[in-house]
Design brief:
The strands form four sheets. The protein has a five-stranded parallel beta sheet. Helix 9 links the parallel strand 11 and strand 12. The relative contact order is 0.15. Helices cover 48% and strands 12% of the residues. The protein starts with a helix and ends in a 12-residue tail after the last helix. The protein is α/β, with parallel strands linked by helices. Helix 1 crosses helix 13, helix 2 crosses helix 13 and helix 3 packs parallel to helix 10. Bound molecules: alpha-D-psicofuranose and manganese (II) ion (MN). Alpha-D-psicofuranose binds next to loops.
């Protein structure tokens, strides 16, 4: 079997050489792309109709970190985990940083939560109460303090602010409150850190969401300061939005800060990346690779983060499967023959242009990724390695009873 994979790899290498693509460079890029997993993806979760308990689901932050570390151990490309405050609040964040390091990972983006507390029923920064707006700001500043303690460089902001009925709120007044709040957050950012502003077109607001789309998020960034960038969560658009176009546009404006990877069929379903629409993820990566290859695009710094909630699949397997999928989307995009594409676009050969993308998309990149992992000293198939590791059996036996509740929404 492994001989066969090696032979398939050799064939691919031959094809790439023929196209003049740099195989060693491609493998290097696959080795260094880091994908951040979310602490909240390891705990019990559910829908608004109920929370489902899973055998082995992490019950507290320590178990969530251990799971994130295991995912990194198997994939080699997930050295950080995002935390959500207060779900991941601890007394000693210095000790938490150390705990993560001892496990071979680090704390990544800090996600404040200004949506769950009863105080935020009518919003946070867009709340008409000055006291609540101040509380929200205080929480964000407290999260910035946590960033300093864990040495995180990304403050990841999502606001649930919105309204349910026409007439409920004054659009422009709310916008001005948001601008003022975001500017204060920007001022409090530590050296070398940035803030990412995530948008979502509905939910929990069903009439209005204050930061409803990428354009609004981009405007808020412009009004906020140079260290504010947009976060694209793949589940936060109306159906049929051309997300790859959004991505290219934001890159060109220097405003693409990061992703929350997931997939959806209907709304913000938070299912496994690529499970429903793999071609979309490939086309997004196609824009990223095009920008990486373009010397006129400087300072590209994209935080690749997962934001998923697996209620049906075993959480660890689903997370590993996600990482593997994201890597294959990147690998396929790296195989696009960009010179040929540019030439055929210039010649207005639409059929050839599309075929160039499809040729890359339909390439079986598993032998390439298996070789990359082998060179990194990893098992070529991380899901199989996980299944053989006995980790699930161990956590399913050990993790009985709740420690601190679900630890996530749902
Ligand atoms: C909101 O739907 C969101 O995508 C934000 O990123 C939150 O932080 C996360 O989900 C919470 O589950
Ligand atoms: Mn998100």
């Amino acid at each position: 079997m492994s001989d066969l994979v090696d032979r398939e790899y050799d064939l691919l290498a031959e094809r790439l050489a023929h196209q003049g693509l740099d195989l060693e460079g491609i493998k290097e890029r696959l080795k260094v792309q880091e994908i951040e997993t979310p602490s909240w993806g390891y705990g019990n979760s559910g829908t608004r109709f109920g929370v489902f308990k899973q055998a082995g689901a992490a019950r507290d932050l320590h178990e969530r970190l251990a799971d994130a570390a295991m995912v990194h151990q198997l994939t080699g490309v997930c050295p950080s985990t995002a935390i959500h405050i207060p779900w991941d609040k601890v007394d000693d964040f210095g000790a938490l940083k150390q705990e993560a390091e001892d496990l071979g990972i680090r704390i990544g983006a800090v996600n404040p939560n200004v949506f769950q507390d009863a105080d935020y029923k009518m919003g946070s920064f867009a709340n008409s109460s000055e006291r609540v707006r101040r509380n929200a700001l205080d929480h964000l500043v407290a999260c910035i303090d946590i960033m300093e303690q864990v040495n995180s460089k990304v403050l990841s902001l999502w606001f649930a602010d919105g309204t349910n009925y026409p007439g409920q709120g004054d659009f422009r007044r709310r916008k001005h409150w948001f601008e003022a709040g975001l500017r204060e957050v920007h001022e409090a950012l530590p050296e070398g850190a940035r803030m990412l502003i995530e948008y979502k077109f509905f939910e929990p607001g069903f009439y209005l969401t204050d930061i409803a789309d990428w354009g609004m998020a981009a405007f808020y960034c412009k009004h906020t300061g140079p260290r504010a960038q947009v976060l694209v969560d793949l589940g936060h658009h109306p159906l049929s939005t051309n997300i790859e176009h959004v991505v290219a546009f934001l890159i060109d404006e220097g405003l693409l800060g990061g992703f929350h990877f997931n997939n959806r069929k209907y709304a913000d379903d938070d299912v496994t990346t690529g499970s429903v629409n793999p071609y979309e993820v490939f086309l997004i990566y196609n824009e990223i690779v095009a920008a990486e290859d373009d010397p006129s695009i400087r300072d590209l710094d994209i935080a690749y983060m997962v934001d998923q909630s697996h209620n049906i699949k075993p959480k660890m397997e689903a997370m590993i499967q996600t990482v593997v999928f994201i890597q294959s989307a990147y690998a396929r995009a790296l195989l696009v023959d960009r010179n040929a594409l540019l030439a055929s676009q210039t010649e207005e050969d639409t059929v050839r242009s599309e075929s160039i993308l499809q040729e890359a998309f339909t390439t079986d990149v598993r032998p390439l990724l298996a070789r990359v992992r082998k060179e990194m000293g990893l098992h070529p198939d991380p899901v199989a390695a996980y299944r053989a590791s006995g980790y699930f059996e161990k956590i399913a036996e050990e993790r009985v009873g709740e420690l601190e509740g679900a630890g996530s929404w749902g």
